## 1
Amino acid sequence: MKPVSKFVLNILKENKKELIIITTIATIGSLIAVSIPYLYGKIFDLALIPQTTISLLFSLIFLWAILGLISNYTSNKTAYRGEILGVKVGLEEECKSYGHFLSLPISFHKSKKKGEVLNKLSRASWTLAYFCETLSGVFPQFLILIFAIIIMLIVQWQLALILIFSFLIYAFVIVKLMGPILKAQDKTQLVYEREYGNIYDKLYNVFLIKNFAMEDKEKINIHHSLISKTLPYERRSAKKWNNLSIYQGIIYNLSFVILLSLAIFFFRKGDLTAGQFIMFFGYINLCFGPFFRLTEMYRLYKKSSIAIKRFTTLKQKVPEAMKHGNKILENLKGKINFENITFGYSKDKAVLDNLNLEINSGESVAIVGRSGVGKTTLIELIMGYYQPDNGRILFDGVDISKLELKWLREQMAIVSQDISLFHDTVLNNLKYANPKATNIEIVAATKAASAHDFIMELPKKYSTIVGEKGVKLSVGQRQRLALAMAFLKKPKILILDEPTAALDAESEKKVKEGIQKLIRGRTTLIIAHRFSTVKNADKIIVLNKGKIVEVGNHRELIAKRGLYHKFYTLQVGLD
Ligand SMILES: Nc1ncnc2c1ncn2[C@@H]1O[C@H](COP(=O)(O)OP(=O)(O)OP(=O)(O)O)[C@@H](O)[C@H]1O
Ligand SMILES: [Mg+2]
């Protein structure tokens, strides 16, 4: 089965109960709607007969009014419930997609423009909502059409056949013209997604734009993106739509004229009573409504297929957890082994090349090397963000691919180079690391990370909002908050990627004391360009050209007079 049909069937299955209710109400409504033209045709015929009593006529008119009211009520009820169902299904799919989006690997997030994906999903959600809303009205519309045609065939089959024939021509034209329209709309959609991707990228990087005073140029770019790029596509698909509407109008009017002429002819011949004449045109009107709606449904189905494909393509991307196992180690000691690890972001360039490394449990290991050598990459492999191209990473002797990623990351805390926080209070950000932490524990953690004093100086202390990504804090303050979060998490494995890079000498001294406390009893990996941070590590490894070229403690490596010695003397010289 095609993914789109499968998707629609799934929606039908998941909302069976509500759909049955809507369809039942709507079916009652359509049966009533079909009986109305018949009734007023009869009233008209009876009115022409002198013997008909006024009371009978008024009773029938009263019945007609009641049926009209019920029909009105049911159609409003169907529309209301259909709308709610549509919105619910659209939002549910959007939620599932966001959830799935979060579970996709880092490599996906690093390579995609977020704005493009988000725009794609919210547009798809609305199309889907509209589609489901219309879907709930299909069955009754179809019933009205069938019943009305059957009654017309009984009353005057020649006229009914002409009506059916005009419907067929109408449907043929729609199917023929819809293809190019949808293609044009799909193209328009893609252009929107791409352009919104670009615009969001600009909005995310507003500081970069301001730094280079490019606001005016970007305003022009945004205008160009949204107007100049998309309008021609909009125009093209609108033109195609317009053509379709013209053909629809021609067919409708032509068939109406033919039907009217023939009806007059049959009326004159005496094959059609005046009441039947009126009844017939009542049915023609009744039929065209559902028929238009069914064609609209067809158009929507085609259009939603594109939206649904967007959801399904995203869903087909495998969440990272699936590539891993579900093993949990009861008492993780924190021993990490790299066995012949080769890894590159692209196939032709290895960042790490056949690397072997042993980190014992509770050991602190510093990683040193030139910028861009692959230090952060090594850490991202430990976090399970990427799969090595070759070799194995072991935790307490167990291959990472067998471990449950969620559990593994719960055992680690990282203070990364690029610290980001939620647009929330200091306290809530801290609690994110450990929701169960008490206020006493939180203050102990911020004190250990030298963060407490600056937090107390913020306008609302722990209740201060830190701004999007934490922009209202200085980089050093953010770094200290991240350290406090690492303290709160009480991890088995601690990873510090340049933890003191943004600090002044005084704060660095304090934070280093905090770090020394945090390191105790934990496997720790520290990346630092500053040797004051590196010196105390149990083991220092020097990375160069994808390989470990030196291993030892500070004293040993200095004595070796190799690369480490060179970096060190360069920095000491600089200092
Ligand atoms: N997502 C990515 N896609 C492609 N290449 C990447 C990606 N991330 C990093 N690289 C490349 O991999 C190499 C190693 O990067 P990495 O971030 O590990 O360096 P680093 O040693 O941490 O440097 P620094 O000291 O500057 O932080 C660099 O050449 C970088 O350009
Ligand atoms: Mg790095």
## 2
Amino acid sequence: MSKKGGFFSLLIFGFIIFCSLFLFSSLIFPKGASENQVLTGLQGMQKNQNNAEKPGVKTDAKANVKNNAETMLEKEPTSTPPGSLPAPEKNNIPEEERTPTSPQQENSTTWDEAMFEKLSFLQMPLPGASITTRDSQLPGAPRAYRHGVHEGLDFYADYCGIQVNYGDPVFAAGPGVICRIDHHYQEPSVEERTAMLQNCMEAGATPENILDKLRGRQVWIAHSFGTSTRYAHLSAVANHLQEGDPVRAGDFLGNVGNSGTSEGARGEKTNPHLHFEVWLENNFLGEGLTPQEVRSLWRSLLEE
Ligand SMILES: [Zn+2]
């Protein structure tokens, strides 16, 4: 009997200890429900900025960026078709503006650290330039005239901290291999350009072959980890470079121009600018983000 009673009281004593330990631990380590939240869909990606420091959500962010890329590349919406993210409406969210010049890079991007690492080699293709102050010159900006989306960053005089003149040299943003260089570029005529834009209107999007022509004379570089950069609207390309040639960061690639634009088609030299694209696999840098997020991401990669 006493043996049985002793065992029983030991069991109760153990149970009390277990309960108090459990209570104690939950007081010390409170577990927020948000930590386990899985962010899905495009809205989740927008919100993800707040969760950037939590390692658990980073893979989801990556998947969302990818999903978003696929839908955007397929449809290239300008208005808001059903099921797509009403991106322009997000512009008035002032949340990102509240993250001032913080030394923590993580706060300035919703792209995960792995992506950030892969692109850490980037430097300015125009020395001394800064990221444009105009949203319409950022990647992701709508391009109504061709029913599409801007996939690169524009460097225009007055908006990027330096003068950008027709003929200014353009330099490699990182080490890599030339995978395209347009030595035999032919500028479309005004009529051809008009026909291309008519085509875009009928398609309600910018077909890839037309988009390519609208980028004008180009140089593309393949970098490591599936990243690449494109330099567009050039007036000339480096004579000594061919496809397959290795380049170092800062190597001369070509000259600023306006090829592929309406001014270029008219044979004018006005409105020169560099259109610069950064790709990570099939996503352009900043794809799916708000203009504020795109700007911080590009700044942290190219200005810091
Ligand atoms: Zn552009």
